[in-house]
Amino acid sequence: MPGHVFLRGDDGVTLRTFEPEDVEFFRDNRSDREVRRLLRNVRPVNARAVEADLEEYSPNDDSARFVATKDGERAGSISLWAGDAPNGTAWMGAWVDPAFHGRGVATEAASLVVDYAFEERRLNKVRTGVYATNEPSKRVMEKLGFQREGVERAQVLIDGERVDSYRYAMLREEWEGRP
Amino acid sequence: MTGPVFRAGDLTELRPVEADDLDAVQRLFSEPETRRQRRGGVAPQSDVAMESWHEDDRDDGEDVFLVTADGESLGIAQLRRVDRPNGSAILTWLFDPERTDEQAADALREMVGWAFDEQRLEKLTAQVPVPAAGHGVLEAVGFVEEGYYRQDRYLDGEFVDVRAYGLLRSEWEG
Fold first, then answer.
1. If residue A98 lies in a helix (H) or strand (E), which one and from where to where?
2. Residues of A with CB below 8 A from B123's CB?
């Protein structure tokens, strides 16, 4: 069973606490080539490594990690990290299990995390990076109204090619003023 | 004792940071004019904090250098978030306001040479808040503007924008 619901969204999407029962789900996705190539996860990750990650992780002032579920099933993961309270900024990062691709999980999960960042954590800006070849994630960011603030040229190595990284960001005033 | 010269440019040197240099670094981390250039500059840095900063185990390639001119400290420079598979890193620095732009550019060129010619990195990025100095220095080193990050820092009671720059190994070699 996935952990407790922490944020409840539309279309059956919820964000839940990260629990020991989620280890296998994380391990399998972080090893899946389709998922890991866009995370730049180049090292093999076994269950023990995910457990160590879980043990090291505690929800503190700087970060928050969630398991995203769709209709009660584990569908992906989304986090706020590298939170910088004085400057009011944090990074958002997510992945979705390929079985749930194209079902609106990323869009709804990101929308919940942005709400949470501004309304509960009093942040001012949420940033994220999307590699140029990742069309689905670019569509998610644009659908949510994130602004593209820059292109880091040839920033990462994906399948042997140097690929640009797009920087997207949402400001609190833009999120609150959206239609 | 000042440490040995690790890389020498035309006007400046990069040296390992020795215990005797900590007072100069602590001043940069404390003076209002310089400390706020650091993202973490809101926290006061005691002697004890400086010792632990000095003893901090940094990953290979993220070592801090003391930048000097004729042996006198001008500040520090460091690569951060060195990412080996991607070959990327962020170039950061904190210089004494008395330094000249030519000295700053010379020291940053040595940092870039260390990153590309010794560590085989592929891509460096750097950021400068819009109200701060340093844009011209980065451009003189060959960095190209890659982004404009809105409300990315909070300085003197307001959010300020940041310009982002990048430099590729191929541009450096050219």
1. none
2. 152-155, 162
Cα→Cα distances B57→A32, A55, B48, B53, B75, Å = 32, 22, 16, 9, 20
Q: Tell whether the model's pLDDT for residue A4 goes beyond 90.
A: yes
DSSP letters along B75-126, please? EEEEEEEEETTTTEEEEEEEE-TTS-HHHHHHHHHHHHHIIIIIT---EEEE
**B30 in helix, strand or coil?**
helix
Q: State the best of A42, A118, A162, A174 to mutate against chain B, taking most chain B CBs within 10 Å.
A: A162
Which chain B residues are Cβ-neighbours of A170 within 8 angstroms?
none
Which of B42, B125, B147 is closest, CB to CB, to A149? B147
Cβ contact A169–B42 (<8 Å): no
Task: Look at residue B146 and tell me whether its pLDDT is greater than 90.
Answer: yes
Q: In chain B, what residues touch A117 (CB-CB under 8 Å)?
A: none
Q: Do A151 and B42 touch (CB under 8 A)?
A: no
Q: Which residue has the tokens 């043990």?
A: A55
Asked whether the CA dihedral A116, A119, A121, A126 is positive or negative, the reply is: positive
Express as a percent the part of chain B with pLDDT over 90: 84
Reply yes or no on whether the pLDDT at A38 is more than 90: no
- Chain A residues with CB under 8 Å of B120 CB are none
Q: Which residues pair with A126 in a beta bridge?
A: A90, A170
> Which two structure tokens, joined as six digits, stand for B23?
């007072």
Burial of B140 (0-12, 13-18, 19+ CB in 10 A): middle
Count other C-beta atoms under 10 Å from residue A106's C-beta. Answer: 26
Helix, strand, coil share (%) of chain A residues, nearest 5: 35, 35, 30
Q: Which residues is B155 bridged to in the sheet?
A: B158
Q: Please tell me the distance from the alpha carbon of residue B7 to that of residue B13, in angstroms, as a whole number.
A: 6
Are B147 and A162 within 8 A, CB to CB? no
